[in-house]
Amino acid sequence: MNFDALIIGGSFAGLAAAMPLVRARRKVLLIDGGTPRNRFSDASHGFFGLDGRSPAEISKLGLEQLGRYSTFKHLPAQADSVKGDLDAFVVSVGADIYRARRVVFATGVTDVMPDIEGFAERWGRSIVHCPYCHGYETADRPTAVLYATPGSLHQVRMLQDWTGDVTLLTNGHAVPPEEIQALHAVGIETVEGRVLRLEGDGRELETIHLEGGRNLTARVLYAAPFQKPTSDLPEQLGCAYTDGLLGPILQVDGGQMTTVPGAYAAGDAARAMQNATFAVNDGSWAGINVHRSLML
Predict the structure, then answer these.
(1) Is the Cα torsion angle 179, 180, 186, 190 positive or negative in sign?
(2) What is the domain range of residue 268?
(3) What gap in Å lies between CA 137 and CA 188, rounded to an integer?
(4) Would you say the pTM of this structure is higher than 0.85?
(5) Tens of pLDDT along 230-284?
(6) Which of 27, 89, 196, 284 is a Cys-bridge partner for 16, taking CB atoms 3.0 to 4.6 Å apart?
């Protein structure tokens, strides 16, 4: 089957990329494997007009709206391979072949869970990454920040706008003494030593166990796991990557096109600062630029 644009990845960025294209009456195929990065979270916050809705609910609504357009097709499946070039991309799904003039990668990233017992099952619930996304709902609770990069020092100070009880866990990293002193000066405690285990009822957090036998009470843990591309499809096509804050991201120009002409990328796969609104913005901009390129 032939399409004007084939979008791989059906979360916020992929859905947003489809909208301007179908409204321009272009034939669009959206292929989505159904395992978005945000599936661990109960609610998406800070997304204007949809604040507090679950990510799954938002995606379902987006699909329903796109489904009203006759040129839109949704394929719930995993894309296996991609090849080709401008005006002649070929994507395989099992034994089926789909051809498109343009391709959009909205394939996202995967958070790499640290080797801490009890971390993975609490991710997206009592272990979160963004105070703008989760800070309001978890405010005024004992909170800890797991050091990952120097950006953690900025985040722990930010969190004082949400709670008066915040602690930095160095987790074995050598944090410069002057940084620790600066945190102490504004009332932020630092705790050294590796985090070994997290405990709590179900997905809730209650106790952080550290090496040396120390325990810390916390109801919220902010963490920034390193990330890896969820899909190798962009790499198959030869798209270049660049360094993001926490892992590689696809290199794109101002119109969301990758280093391969005719191949675009949007959302977490192609940006360092990530949230739902940014993903929708990038997706919409990618869709608009795909349409513009088809007109040339």
Answers:
(1) positive
(2) 2-110+226-295
(3) 21
(4) yes
(5) 999 999 999 999 999 999 999 999 999 999 999 999 999 999 999 999 999 999 9
(6) 284
